[in-house]
Amino acid sequence: MSMARALSHINGNSVFHVPCRPKPKRQCPLQLPRRVFKVTVSCNQSYWDSINSDIKAHLNRAIPIREPLTVFEPMNGLTFAAPRSIVPALCVAACELLGGHRDDALPTASALWLMYSASFTHEHLPLTQSCRPKSDVRHLYGPNIELLIGDAMIPFGLELLAKSDDRTQNISTRILRVMIEITRAIGSQGMIYKQYHDVERHRSNNNKSYHVEKLEKYEGTLHACAAACGAILGGGSEEEIEKMRRYGLYVGKIQGMVSRAERNDKELNKSVEEMRRLATKELSGFNEAKVQAISTYFESDFMYAQF
Amino acid sequence: MSMARALSHINGNSVFHVPCRPKPKRQCPLQLPRRVFKVTVSCNQSYWDSINSDIKAHLNRAIPIREPLTVFEPMNGLTFAAPRSIVPALCVAACELLGGHRDDALPTASALWLMYSASFTHEHLPLTQSCRPKSDVRHLYGPNIELLIGDAMIPFGLELLAKSDDRTQNISTRILRVMIEITRAIGSQGMIYKQYHDVERHRSNNNKSYHVEKLEKYEGTLHACAAACGAILGGGSEEEIEKMRRYGLYVGKIQGMVSRAERNDKELNKSVEEMRRLATKELSGFNEAKVQAISTYFESDFMYAQF
């Protein structure tokens, strides 16, 4: 089977083909050497694009714009308002790498998407006495609605996940394990901790190095969680789950580095290259065609996703 | 066995005995006829008090004040800052009524407590351009912290619940069902919907009757959910689960009525009496000693809990 065919049918899932026309280039936050950050637009990118399209379709089915419109319209709107993130797709890719079916990972990926969107919404709420710098995010709704709908999105995502339990397949234990992974990652140990330190960082600029160090410690937590969840759902062994967790962590750290435009290019380039090497190492031993598909990430514009 | 002894040992759980001294009377929002709202302070009240103490102890073990203090201190503080609610204890009481062990319901009750506290915290956030009336709630922390810690409390509660899965007992399916109940109740269908309409009500005072009608429709959703969850965990049949759901709903509606001090006493008194009759009817057929213990609710000052 040719590589192209292998990529278009992973685990019997027909991959959604995005027409092969070059997309408008997204503005890159940094001028980076082409060797590492080569942004080519080819049919290979359709692997990540197709995952993203499937998650979006799943979410649109889960949050149709229906009555009461006052609740479902903003929930749908805010779900898709956050900048693109690799996190949900990482979960699906890891599941497929481990031999799972794409459909098995879509509810978890959707839950992760909702968590991320809720976090983004709350991160940009206009609070009184806020210590944050003014955000230039366009607000789709009033602050009350953005607060409450953000609150609803977290349990709604977990409800989607809990409902995906299929008693005939006896996967309740896997779903509960995934639930623990996600709730922990977005709870005090992970994303919230990061947000908390973001706030603290803006409050006290006098101790910057401490904060960057803290940020780096927690960066990639959600990416690591997403990849580990995919591996759990794909039926991976403990060793495989931990390999995917580390893979996700490196991917998350790369995204963090790219998003922090403070360092000079040379230093950044070196760090990214090292992370990419470590990430690729974690994929050794898995099905080669699938590894190839996943690795297109480093050539895709997902690299420049904000989160 | 005497009633006192029956009450002090339900399902083999030794009930925490609160010393029999009269508590300071809480201010009642309404002057109500003594017949319905007789506030007696007796040893019987120790049933609900003991449940509440056990949930508090469980939460204190789950959220000890430990490092990082910047996260766990406010999480602990905000968890216990919300006004007392009957919701978590309802879950434990329903579980015990159905023959379950108190310990089986404590993680779910703790999750419900955290959901309620998170909701209370966010409901009183000082937002810019807020349409809400000014709240006189004392803020323990800055608005950023209250927003983020509130965000962390929802997944943290669900993590506690997911972690309570005991593979040796094969209860994963029950836990997932409870998870669906809770996430649905606090998501778009329930509490959030209510909050959303609270906000809308304050925004447009010209359509009050419509909003009260909407409020009443969703009132008691979380109480109904808590009681149904307890019944699920206690191993109840579908019919028993639905009976407990209705019981919780009536209790929730009573609390809603008591908290809305707009109507005249006579009308309110009649409605409360009718709800109490319906609630009591749902308990028929269950173990009499346990029904007696649960029914002390109507004599306790839990009736005047804010939520």
The major β-sheet of chain A equals: 2 strands, antiparallel
- Strand order within the widest beta sheet of chain A: 1-2
CATH superfamily label of chain A: Farnesyl Diphosphate Synthase
| CATH level 1 class label of chain A | Mainly Alpha
Order of helices and strands of chain A: HEEHHHHHHHHHHHHH
Greatest contact between two chains: A-B, 54 and 54 residues
Average pLDDT confidence of chain A is 77
Quaternary state reads homodimer
How would you describe the shape of chain A?
globular
Q: Using the CA coordinates, give the radius of gyration of chain A.
A: 19 Å
Note the total helix count of chain A: 14
Low-confidence stretches of chain A: 1-45
Q: What is the SS-derived class of chain A?
A: mainly alpha
CATH architecture of chain A: Orthogonal Bundle
Extended strand count of chain A: 2
**Fraction of residues in β-strands of chain A:** under 5%
Describe the structure.
- Chains A, B: This is Heterodimeric geranylgeranyl pyrophosphate synthase small subunit.
- Chains A, B: Its cofactor is Mg(2+).
- 2 copies of one chain form a homodimer.
- Chain A is mainly α.
- The first copy, chain A, has a single domain (44-126, 139-304), classed as Farnesyl Diphosphate Synthase, CATH 1.10.600.
- Chain A has 14 helices and 2 strands, in the order αββααααααααααααα.
- The first copy, chain A, has helices at 3-8, 34-37, 46-62, 69-79, 87-97, 102-123, 143-163, 172-186, 191-203, 208-218, 221-233, 238-259, 265-282, 288-295, and strands at 9-10, 13-14.
- A two-stranded antiparallel sheet of chain A has the order 1-2.
- In chain A, β1 (9-10) and β2 form a beta hairpin.
- In chain A, α5 (87-97) packs parallel to α11 (221-233), α8 runs antiparallel to α11 (221-233) and α12 (238-259) packs antiparallel against α13.
- The longest helix of chain A is centred in the middle third of the chain and has 22 residues, at 102-123.
- Chain A is globular, with a radius of gyration of 19 Å.
- The relative contact order of chain A is 0.15.
- The model of chain A is unreliable at 1-45 (pLDDT under 50).
- At the A-B interface, α4, α6, α7, α8 and α9 of A face α4, α6, α7, α8 and α9 of B.
